[in-house]
Structures are given as structure tokens and as C-alpha cells.
Amino acid sequence: MNKNKVLISVIVPCYNQAQYLDECLQSVENQIFTDWECLIVDDGSPDNTAEIAKKWANRNNRFRYLKKENGGLGSARNFGIENALGEWILPLDADDKISENYMQLAVNEFDNNYKVIYCEAKRFGKKQGLWKMPNFSLNTLAKRNVIFCTAFFRKNEWQKVGGYDINLLNGWEDWEFWIALLKNGGKVLKINEVCFFYRIKKQSMITDLMQKKELNLHTFDYIRSKHNIFFAKITKKIFFVVKSLSPEYQAEMPTYEFINELLAQNYEIGIITTKKEKNEIDFSEKVTIFYLFSEKELFLAKIKPILQRRIRKLYKKEFPDTILTVGKQYFSKAKLGSLYCKL
Length: 343
What we know:
Spore Coat Polysaccharide Biosynthesis Protein SpsA, Chain A; 343 residues; alpha/beta
């Protein structure tokens, strides 16, 4: 391996994943782009990770084997990145794999000032098919992780944020890392091609986390507390669906006080209704009104599936990062408060 020509360092932490490691590393070796190295980090694994990793390191000098005491996924990734020679980093879990052109497609974009580059993905194993994730935006990232771990970023950017948080031993270290990396800005590119393959097993760290509700909430609270300024700055979007904006339906609508309270909390407010009325209630200019039907189409509003389809279509187009509330049951502070807890 020519150390002066290493552009990409692939970091593969491994703990009790030896049975999948060959398939993972083969996908790295198959890359069309060749100026890479792959660091296999044995995180104190009790299985035969060392045997398999050394086999690859002996047969191809672009693979390097590193061993450390068990410290968790974030710690293993940090250790690998610390020892990496590449300018760009690509984490890859030992049970996943990448397409042969992933590196080349990313390299083509390296000079376009992107902070993070990732791609479309598919699941394989116990569950198969396209892995549909929301497109990246800071609003969306504030609610959930929308970038899987196997994305490209520069090593110096990793250094600036202090790497992966080693306190997150039970999952979501990716989400916290992307927040740290992107909360102050930076361009993100999603390559419009499936280049990452995520293995679904009967049990994984993230499914463990989702099943343990108390631990889930603790992890979520930890991340929100660590990045409290980021979460406070993010504009939150919410819209209501009401039957009409005519004054006679005012009892079914959120009150002015409630709307103003939400606006003061940095919410964007949208109100969806069926059609424009001649005599409408006035709302703040910060509130956006959406009409589902023209006068000629109004008869369609009585057909429930069409009405619901129009709402969903508008929701996806105008407010993809929105809390959708339908019906007056959400127009009280108590109900909306319970909704906040689900974010």
C-alpha cells in the first residue's frame, strides 16, 4: 500500500460479528476505486475476529488489523479513525456491505465542498427491500437519524467535534455524531444510487434499544441535553386540518392565543382547509393557509379517501418535516403536549 495515495480509510469495528466479516471485507476489496485502506478494529471480540482479520491483512496490504479492549462501537470507530491515513473516512459495520462503485461515486464529489456524502440503501437478511429514509434536513435530523453510519466525512471534521461519543454504549452514536458534525452547517449529498446494504438480523443493538423504552428515553434525553442549543434553534413545523375557516367553525379551530403561543416557541404553523371562504377568520401573516379544493372540485371533499389523499400529498410536498395534527382533539395544550413527548 502506498501511504501517500490513501484517500479513503474504511473503518470496520468488529465485536462478535466474525461470521459476517468476510462478506463485508470482500465488498471493500471489490471497489473500483483503489486508493483506500481498510482498518479492521477488533473491539475485544471473543469470537474468531482476529483470525479472519489477520487473514485479510496478510493477503492484501490495504487491510490493517487493530485490536483494543472492548469499549463499545463509538470507541472502536474512534480508535480506527485515530490510526487512519486517509483524508476521508467511511465507517462500515462488520455485518454490512457496500457496492463496488460506492467509493468512486463519492470521490467524484469530494471537491464539491460536501461535509457528508451518503447514498440510497437496501436491507438484506431477515428483512429485504429498499431502505426508505427521509431526506436530510436539520429539521428532520432533530427528530430522528436520517443518515446511516456508512457515509463519507473528512477526518479533520471528525477531530473538530471530538469524534463519536463513547458514552453512548447502547446505540444512537451515529445520530449524535451527525448532529455534532452538521448542526452548525455544511452541505450533505445523497447519491441517487443504492450503494449500501444494511443487514437485518433477529436482534441488533438498535432493536434492543427500541425494545427497552426506559433506556431509549434516557439516550434521547442525553442527546437532546448535549445539543440543547441545536434543538432549541430548530424551527418546528405543525399544521392543523380544519373543516372551514368560516367564523361559524371557529370552535373547531385552534385559538389565537394557542397559535401565538406556538409561534413564540419558534413553530411554523400551517392550516389546511377544504376551500377558500368569502368570509374567513384572520390569522397572523406567519400562519400559512392551504386550500385542498377549488370551487369546481368541492364535491370531491365529500369523498373521504380523496380528501385524505389530498392531505397526505400536501403534507409531503409542503411540510415533509412536520408534526401532522388532524381534528380538534389536538387543539388543547394537554393533547399537544403529549404529542411533543413522541418526537
